[in-house]
């Protein structure tokens, strides 16, 4: 089944404790993105990647890191999480470009206390 | 810059029609529409590329006026299953990432 998977689905952590949210897709897509969703603000892009080893900042990259060492994986790293990073996070992938359908993962709900 | 969606929320009875608008201050290459049900991931509805084409998907269709940088999503004879939050995403070229609006919450009641 073609899908985007994220882990963990739910995470409660404390300020400053490094964490990684994994994202993997099995559709051989080149484009991958991370979004955060907050009430009333919609989906805001954090980082995106157009291919292996090619990443770029989105609209809200502060406090986040990403890497794209393999085509299928695009982990999101929070080196020192803060409470303002409490949010619902989505990973998405698309074939060839952003003018194609994006497939979203199930989401990761992160709470930083 | 985020596109502006209107209305922010709408309540419909089954069978009624609705229009959701999305406008941008920038010249657009494409407009995407997604629907998100509560607690789930956004799901793709359709993409419109510049050229003013209109697309349809069952009873849901959309138009794109590239001169006005506006897109409208039309939902006809609404069903309970149409409930959710609708997002438009816009791109200024084929290689720039999407920027999503804040969403329109649609509730269909019996």
Which H/E pattern describes the elements of chain A? EEEEEEEEEEE
Q: Tell me, briefly, the overall form of chain A.
A: globular
Structural class of the helices, strands and pairings of chain B?
mainly beta
Instruction: List the uncertain runs of chain A.
Output: none
Describe the main β-sheet of chain B briefly. Answer: 6 strands, mixed
* Residue windows where pLDDT falls under 50 for at least 5 positions of chain B: none
Cα radius of gyration of chain B in angstroms: 13 Å
Mean pLDDT across all amino acids of chain A: 95
Mean pLDDT of chain B: 92
Tell me how many strands of chain A there are: 11
- Strand % of chain B is over 45%
Tell me the β content of chain A: over 45%
Helix-strand string of chain B = EEEEEEEEEEE
Q: What is the helix content of chain A?
A: under 10%
Distance between the termini of chain B: 37 Å
Radius of gyration of chain A: 13 Å
Tell me about the biggest sheet of chain A?
7 strands, mixed
H/I helix tally of chain B: 0
**Number of DSSP strand runs of chain B:** 11
Q: Which descriptor suits the 3D outline of chain B?
A: globular
Give a structural overview.
The complex is a heterodimer of chains A (113) and B (110). In chain A, strand 4 and strand 5 (42-51) form a beta hairpin. The mean pLDDT of chain A is 95. Chain A has strands at 4-7, 10-13, 19-25, 31-38, 42-51, 54-57, 65-66, 76-78, 87-94, 103-104, 108-112. Chain A is built from no helices and 11 strands. Chain A starts with a strand and ends with a strand. By secondary structure, chain A is mostly beta strands. In chain A, 0% of the residues lie in helices and 50% in strands. Chain B is mostly beta strands. Helices cover 0% and strands 54% of the residues of chain B. Chain B is built from no helices and 11 strands. In chain B, the strands form 2 sheets. In chain B, strands 2, 4, 5, 9, 10 and 11 form a 6-stranded mixed beta sheet that branches. In chain B, strands 1-3-8-7-6 form a 5-stranded antiparallel beta sheet, with no helix packed on it. Chain B is globular and about 40 Å long. The mean pLDDT of chain B is 92. The chains are: A mainly beta (113), B mainly beta (110). Chain A binds chain B through residues 33, 35, 40-45, 48, 50, 58-59, 90, 97-107, and chain B through 2, 29-30, 32, 34, 40-44, 47, 49, 87, 89, 91, 94-103.
